[in-house]
Specification:
alpha+beta; T-fold; 10-stranded antiparallel sheet; two-stranded antiparallel sheet; 7 helices; globular
Amino acid sequence: MHTNNEGAELMSDEAHETYRKTVEAMAMPFEVVLDGVADIHAAARAVESFHHDLLWANDVFSLWDADSVLSRHLRGELTLDECPDEVREVLESCEWFREHTGGAFDARKPGGTLDPTGIVKSWAVARATWRLDAVASDWMVGASGDVITRGGTRDIGIANPRVKGNPQGTDVLDVVRLSPVYPALATSGGAQVVDHIWDPVTGEPARHFMQVSVVGSDFVACDAWATAICAGGLRTAGLAIEAGHEVLLIIGGRYDGTFEAQKSPGWPSVSGSVST
């Protein structure tokens, strides 16, 4: 293995190599791993373009940036027709998930403020993955606990909800196997940001679970369902399973450091049991 001038790791394997690089966007790291790369320079350009797509999404959708397209739209400075088509696409996706989760996923906060950022990260990644497909058939993107893969199988650790900050190098709660059947994983809850998900029934912070993980075939859907289950509780978890997803619910912590957990029958744990 060696490192190039841009900080990307290159791991040789005869005629092919693994290209690995972490890029920053949306105030978080995105780890990109491309396996079986025939042209390292093409891989570097693809990841650079992937990164630019994420930065563009941040410029459009950030609610922390007063000059973003979405911020200007919410202030009435831009009509929806004056926004890029992608804004309408994301808002329509939010509405679709609201309907299909029984209202548990809702882009509107209790006060009525529109906030679609619950799916913006996963949407931006999914939108940009064609850049990676152009140079590799086997790859992974990790985005702060959410993972999308293409190609072969990968064993992915799920962070312990008691770990604050970067969980790299810490004990994991469980290890799941992502594959072409279930290539996407999303995790949500209050472990990192307390009380940021609202119960649509009570209008109060949702505290049904410490943490929820969802695997499935669609990255954005996994992201939306993970948030929806946190907000809506067990009934919403049932809807997610009916929709073809597998779920892991961390209900609470015990005094001895273990957890009370439930998982759906098809949850793809490598060990066959959650560390509870």
